[in-house]
Q: What sequence folds into this?
């Protein structure tokens, strides 16, 4: 849990009635869904959420109209990178990064085993969804987008959203809302053809200029490394040449935009490979699609940057990189 969890609680000040309503509401909502399965229109992109948590996110992401599974996934990814053992310097804990005081008040027994365990995703994921939805309920009369108001309340406190009649004019809160709603697109299964990236041609041109360069594990193309790359170092540099900053590792690059189907691939899309086709966090290789079933990639030690086919058993999926999608990615997860 980031700073917003603290702010959302502290901002109510002496508003004891708000806290009581919120706490009671969390337990009521959680009790209503714990034995049911949420059903909504928003699906998750293939493997975007690790298989161990996908059903939980799909179920609890449909807890209220202001929330959906892709939005909940985006929050969890930004908070912890889906790491159930994550702990921040501020003592935020677990996959949803609750601070102890907030967990004591808002944690729920999501799996009905009689315990509320912040380290157990079966409890922490339902707790995050329940808290989101109670905030949405409290600010439901505020004008504007209900989801944006919910996220703003999560970050800045419900009272601030009510006072300003919508998302408060705080840069941190406005960025929080934009970041989560942008990342949401990366976790949602596309419902229509994904628009092509304007920077794709420049990225391909850069990658082509590196054909024949020897592979180097950890390589980012620096002079000290002899201009050599590993797979994600190449894709990062290719898109940097087009003005887009990608994360360093392949499994984070997967979240830099929406995910076209295999038959929808266009040159410039990033294509990913994994030994676990249910979990984007297990991705181990990435290349830049150039058309005709081929990519440019830096394959392995002893090889050079080259053209390789993408239609292999370990093909995981693709990402159409967008500038907003890349900017929304956390610097470290």
A:
């Amino acid at each position: 849990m980031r700073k917003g969890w603290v702010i959302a609680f502290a901002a109510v000040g002496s508003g004891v009635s708000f806290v009581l309503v919120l706490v009671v509401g969390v337990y009521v909502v959680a009790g209503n869904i714990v034995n049911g399965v949420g059903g909504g229109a928003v699906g998750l992109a293939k493997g975007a959420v690790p298989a161990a948590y996908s059903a939980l996110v799909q179920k609890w992401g449909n807890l209220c109209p202001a929330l959906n599974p892709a939005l909940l996934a985006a929050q969890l990814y930004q908070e912890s990178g889906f790491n159930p053992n994550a702990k921040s310097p501020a003592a935020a804990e677990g996959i949803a990064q609750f601070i102890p005081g907030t967990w004591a008040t808002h944690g729920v027994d999501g799996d009905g085993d009689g315990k509320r365990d912040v380290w157990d995703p079966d409890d922490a994921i339902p707790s995050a969804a329940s808290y989101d939805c109670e905030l949405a309920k409290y600010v439901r009369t505020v004008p504007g987008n209900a989801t944006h108001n919910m996220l703003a309340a999560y970050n800045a406190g419900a009272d601030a959203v009510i006072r300003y009649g919508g998302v408060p004019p705080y840069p941190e809160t406005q960025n929080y809302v934009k970041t989560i709603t942008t990342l949401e697109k990366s976790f949602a299964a596309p419902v229509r053809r994904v628009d092509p990236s304007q920077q794709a041609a420049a990225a391909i041109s850069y990658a082509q200029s590196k054909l024949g360069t020897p592979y180097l594990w950890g390589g980012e193309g620096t002079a000290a490394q002899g201009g050599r790359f590993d797979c994600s170092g190449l894709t990062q540099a290719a898109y940097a040449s087009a003005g887009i900053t990608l994360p360093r590792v392949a499994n984070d690059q997967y979240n830099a935009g929406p995910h076209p189907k295999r038959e929808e691939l266009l040159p410039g899309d990033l294509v990913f490979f994994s030994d676990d086709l249910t979990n984007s966090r297990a991705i181990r290789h990435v290349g830049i699609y150039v058309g005709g079933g081929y990519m440019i990639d830096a394959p392995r030690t002893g090889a050079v940057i080259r053209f390789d086919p993408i239609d292999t058993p370990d093909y995981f999926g693709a990402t159409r990189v967008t500038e907003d999608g890349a900017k929304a990615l956390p610097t470290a997860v």
User: Anything to note?
Assistant: The longest strand covers residues 283-291. The mean pLDDT is 88. Strands lie at 270-274, 283-291, 294-297, 306-309, 315-319.
